[in-house]
Amino acid sequence: MVTIQRQRLRHLRLPKVSLINGGILLLCIVALVATTAIAFFKSFHLGQQPMSTSNIIPKSFLPTNDRCAYLQSRYGCIILPPELTNDIRLDIEEIKQARGADIPISYGNTHEAAMSLQGRDHAQNQDRGIIVSPFRIPSQKVRSRAGANKTDLMVAIYDGHGDDGHKVSQYLQNNLHERIADKLSILHTWSDEIIKQVLNETFLEMDRELPNDLGKTGGSTASVILRLGQKMFFANVGDSLSFLAKYDDINDETSILYKNRFDKPHLPEEKERVERMGGRVFIPQFPINSRVIAFDRIRHEMVTLGMSRAIGDWFHGEVGVIAEPIVDVIDLDDVIQQNPNAQFFVVSSCDGLYDHRDKEFVAKRFANCFFQEQDCHPVVRSVNVIDLAIPKRITGYHDDMTVMAVRLQL
Q1: What does the CA dihedral 360, 152, 201, 277 come to, rounded to 10 degrees?
Q2: What is this structure's pTM?
Q3: What are 270-308's pLDDT values in tens digits?
Q4: Helix H segments across 73-140?
Q5: What's the CA gap between 94 and 57, in Å, rounded?
Q6: N or C terminus: fewer CB in 10 A for the chain?
Q7: Where are the extended beta strands (E) located within 250-306?
């Protein structure tokens, strides 16, 4: 190989250039590299660190028939929700003009979309999310799974809180899907219980392995949808929301078939665990706003947390806030048999989206886009849903808002 390279170099004739021309050429190269780097970083959330690119395959190596519009890793095609800036809104206008066409953008296509908006008066957006579709398991050992990853997917929302909540949610965005895939890749046999155990172990490991003691200064929800073949696994800690919905085109009806539980401290089993571990639960007039009280040894003061399960929040973990998810399994074959005229989709979003809109509103808006409105693009609809969830009053508070929606292939 070395000899061949030297032969090529001997036959490569370089033109003679002056020192001035050489300097100009060098400046052009530097400008090109800088422009490329700026374009790369603009494609991610404003104020976020880009996800780890250690497994990202260069665009030139992507198969021409692959649906990945922007990022591909050994774990699948990746979509990250961008910050809804003025530049993104300009993109949205171009997408509208395309009248539903599948144009190449990094944050969605005609069957999936992701979008995020930083809350008013927030220093930074602490939401993170990811769609991996198709979701690929490297070196898969389960023979019966051959080719099944065409419909496999993972959707996850991470809503950070606390001083370093954005760092916790970023860590989860970068690592949780990879850890799940790596664990699945070494399995020789699968069952619902085994997959549930994989999800449970992954959540607990993410909590223990947060770098730089981030768990002392921040935490995050984690709501994960994992589709493997015709089984859908919903794993959740915290108060973000993931749901499975259907659209019945015969009756023109949209309904939610499954949604994860909000892990709130006032729930009897959650309250019992917290109090058994020495914690206290404050339950106000509206129990949904209940909070776990803990002592922060860094701030040297009592602090509260509005959920009973989370990743991070280690001081609250000492008094009963746990990172163990509740995992539910949905059999899509059963769902299809019970709803023969329906089409299906999933939505994953942070709780800020529902401060002023309910989940039924969000479900109906995406159902109309996926299955009724011919020229509707899901990315445009995700922006519309967020805009409609912002309070009317200019001075009104609104939380970070992130929404991701995927139409299921059956």
Answers
A1: 0
A2: 0.83
A3: 999 999 999 999 999 999 999 999 999 999 999 999 999
A4: 86-97
A5: 28
A6: N
A7: 253-259, 280-282, 291-296, 301-305
